[in-house]
Amino acid sequence: MSGPSTKIYVFKVFERFWHWSQAGLIIFLLLTGFEIHGVYENFGFKTAVHHHIVAAWTLVGLWVFAIFWHLTSGEWKQYIPTLKKVDAMIKFYLTGIFTNAPHPFRATTLKKHNPLQRLAYLGVLLFISPMIWISGWCYIFYGNWKAWGWDQYLSLEWVAFFHTMAAFMMLVFLIAHLYLTTAGHTPTSHIKAMLTGWEEVDAEETP
Predict the structure, then answer these.
(1) Are 199 and 7 in contact (CB under 8 A)?
(2) How far is 63 from 51, CA to CA, in rounded Å?
(3) Do residues 89 and 104 make contact, with C-beta atoms less than 8 angstroms apart?
(4) Cα separation of 65 and 19, whole Å?
(5) pLDDT score at 157
(6) What is the distance between the alpha carbons of residues 6 and 83, in angstroms, rounded to a whole number?
(7) What is the tally of structural domains in the chain?
(8) Are 193 and 10 in contact (CB under 8 A)?
(9) For 23-29, which contacts have Cβ atoms below 8 Å and span 24 or more sequence positions?
C-alpha cells in the first residue's frame, strides 16, 4: 500500500517467541515427516523418525505454555471467531491486494487478527491439529497397541493416511499464511511486526 504510515505496538515478546518457535518446529516436522514417507533422503530414516518425535513433543510443550499464557493474559479473546467483514477480507486478498485497495481491517492491540485469520486459526485448532496429534500419538505408541487392545480397532494404514493428510493440510495453511504476510502496508511489514512487535499501518488507519 502507498501513503504515509505509522507504527503501533501489537505483538508482545512471548507472542513473537511462540510464533517463530512454533513455525520452526512445524516446518521441521514437515521436513522430517516427508523424509519418513520416502519423499527425499537427508537424515536417514531412523534419525528422521527420532528427530520427528523429539520435535513433536517439543511442540506439545510449547503449546502447553502458549495455552497457559493465552488463558492467563486474556489474549485468547483475540481468536474469538466472527463473520463480520469476512467477505471484504476475501475480496481484498483475491483482488484488492493487486489493485492497491485500502485494507478493510485495522490492526490494534485489542484486535490483532482479522476475521478471516480468526476463522483460519479456528479451523487449525478444531480440525487440523486434532487430526495431526491423535494420529501422531497413535503412531508413536504403535508398539503398545496390542497390549492396550487398540490393534482390534485401529489400522496403521489409516492412521498413516490421516496423519499424512493432516500434514498436507498444515502445509497448505503454511503456504497461505506466508502469502498473506505480503498483504500489509508493505510486502514485508507483517514479517517485521512479528520480529519487532511493531505493526506498520497507514497513518489514516491509526485508531
Answers:
(1) yes
(2) 18
(3) yes
(4) 12
(5) 92
(6) 28
(7) 1
(8) yes
(9) 23/174, 25/55, 25/58, 25/59, 25/62, 26/59, 26/170, 26/174, 27/174, 28/55, 29/55, 29/56, 29/59, 29/167
Per the structure block, which three cell numbers stand in for 72? 492467563
CATH number for 17: 1.20.950.20
All three cell numbers of 59, joined, read 511442540
- Kindly report the pTM of this predicted structure: 0.85
**HSE on the CB side for 195, CA within 13 Å?**
7
Cα–Cα–Cα angle for 115, 196, 173, nearest 5°?
Answer: 40
Q: For residue 118, how far is the Cα from the chain centroid?
A: 11
Residue 132 has what pLDDT? 94
Residue 1 — very low, low, confident or very high, per pLDDT cuts 50/70/90?
Answer: very low
Residue-number span of the structural domain to which 83 is assigned? 5-205
CB–CB of 117/85 below 8 Å?
Answer: no
